Amino acid sequence: MASRLIPLLMLLLVPGLALAAGNDKHSLDLTDHWVGFTAIAIFVLAYALVMAEEFTHLRKSKPVILAAGLIWGIVAWYYQSHGLPDATELAVRHNLLEYAELMLFLLVAMTYINAMDERNVFEALRSWLIKKGFGFRQLFWITGTLAFFISPIADNLTTALLMCAVVLAVGGANTKFILLACINIVVAANAGGAFSPFGDITTLMVWQKNIATPQGTVDFFQFFYLFLPAIINWVVPAVIMSFAVPNENPQGGGKSVSMKRGARRIITLFLLTIITAVSFHNFIHMPPVIGMLTGLAYLQFFGYYLKKTYHRELANTNGEANTELEHDGQMGDPIAFDVFNKIARAEWDTLLFFYGVVLCVGGLGFIGYLALASEVMYTEWGTLLGLSAEMSATPANVAVGLLSAVVDNIPVMFAVLTMMPNMSEGQWLLATLTAGVGGSMLSIGSAAGVALMGQARGKYTFFGHLKWAPVIALGYIASILTHLWLNSNLF
């Protein structure tokens, strides 16, 4: 028993290690074997490099992809030597299927976001805000509100980068405003992404898992029970921070930016794609990714239309077709549109990082660490605190959010999903909420925070964010209490 204590403690400190593919009757318990210890060491080292990305400038996908190959290689070799060659292959294929569904889903969403970006949708919004001449306190609330309501449709990272561009454009040398506004944007974007399957990878994972609970299935519309808790999570720290925002007006204005032809129709097609994905999942019980890929075809056909009709319009305007544009339709051209350029511009580092995480921790779970972590977090903690059966998972789910502030929320949420504890709908939504908003407490706790540290380098910093961590923690606690009270019937 003592030999299992060290890896178990590491599981609690590094929640991603709890990820697993489930306990298969043909799997071997390697939790107290050198294979298990070696796999843990490989993953911890890889994740240390991920967390040091800001300083090493090593893309986060590289160490976890290598670690995934090493972990599964060691496990497969051991199983092969013990006469179980097929067990690891089946487990890997299961993990690959889960990854493929999420990767393709995200790829379509990223393609639409890139298409809207190329059509100047976000630049037009940014220039409009700058031209209006709002004061710093007004901009603090406007950028926060937009971050909260855009992130459920786009995603928290893209939304945060857009709003930060506005803040930097109008903030000038006022570093105090930029710091507070960036913190507010990170909190708002993460909170907004927590109540929509499209707002964060973690909520998408929960939705696609199609989890069954005693009350029913956690489907698309159930996530909106988290709307008010998410608002509370953002508003509580925002109100407190707003008193520290300088009561001044920014200097200067911004140039006008117009959206390119077809921008509004692409927005409409993206909304139609979301509707398609939801309908496929809810009404004909197909994976949501099939609906998303169908929606990608909408964009492909519309891109073909944009190309063909533009050159016809150009000929009508100038009297002759511009053959140079016809043969050289580059993405930088104001009118040229190629959907495959938008696919190429997807966040491939993020998508490959996700692959590495899923395969790494899937391997660690296959080794046997799932049962250890699940027993401690979702059974023993609740019993130790004397909680009822319905509320016994609450401490573990609160811890999920706290751990998300230190470790990326993707492995944390995937850990919970692969443990698959027997929880009520309310508890699953609590885990979704905490994983989504817990990362706001530290600037390194979410992709939005890390990205903004790079975008507003020297103005939005780790220690600047840390100073307001207690205030953000108040919002975290308030959102949990709001969910426990408001949605008590779901527990």
UniProtKB/TrEMBL annotation:
UniProt source species: endosymbiont of Ridgeia piscesae
An annotated GO cellular component: membrane
Citrate transporter-like domain sequence ranges: 38-436
GO molecular function: antiporter activity
Pfam family, one: CitMHS
Protein name per UniProt: Na+/H+ antiporter, NhaD family
Residue stretches spanning the membrane: 30-51, 63-79, 99-115, 136-154, 160-179, 186-208, 220-245, 266-284, 290-306, 352-372, 392-416, 428-448, 468-486
NCBIfam families named among the record's database cross-references: NhaD_1 (NF038006)
UniProt keyword terms in alphabetical order: Antiport, Ion transport, Membrane, Signal, Sodium, Sodium transport, Transmembrane, Transmembrane helix, Transport
InterPro entries: Cit_transptr-like_dom, NhaD-like
Lipid bilayer topology: Multi-pass membrane protein
Family: Belongs to the NhaD Na(+)/H(+) (TC 2.A.62) antiporter family.
Entry's Gene Ontology BP terms: sodium ion transport
Signal peptide: 1-20
